[in-house]
């Protein structure tokens, strides 16, 4: 089974998580999600694997685009997911996937539970 990391090489936490995986003998498939944007179905699947109740839990709420789109008042889950697809910068990072499990690498040590 291939372990995947939704990675942003410009993010220190994402780089730290990738390094931690490698230190533990894992060579993950790297998905640079800003270039290879996850689909609506991909995000729904991540939300399920993460056991998140709301798409908002996977959104970076401090991003300017979050405020610009007035997402803090949006309660329609499909609109939140559509916003992440349209603006992948909104997706929390990094996310590591191993089979049917996933973890957000904040802090990076969170991903150790699924490898």
UniProtKB/TrEMBL annotation:
Sample GO molecular function, one term: arsenate reductase (glutaredoxin) activity
Alphabetical list of Gene3D superfamilies matching this protein: Glutaredoxin
InterPro entries on file: Arsenate_reductase (IPR006659), Arsenate_reductase-like (IPR006660), Thioredoxin-like_sf (IPR036249)
Keywords assigned: Oxidoreductase
Source organism superkingdom: Bacteria
Enzyme Commission identifier(s): 1.20.4.1
Catalytic activity: [glutaredoxin]-dithiol + arsenate + glutathione + H(+) = glutathionyl-S-S-[glutaredoxin] + arsenite + H2O
Record family assignment: Belongs to the ArsC family.
Protein name, UniProt field: Arsenate reductase
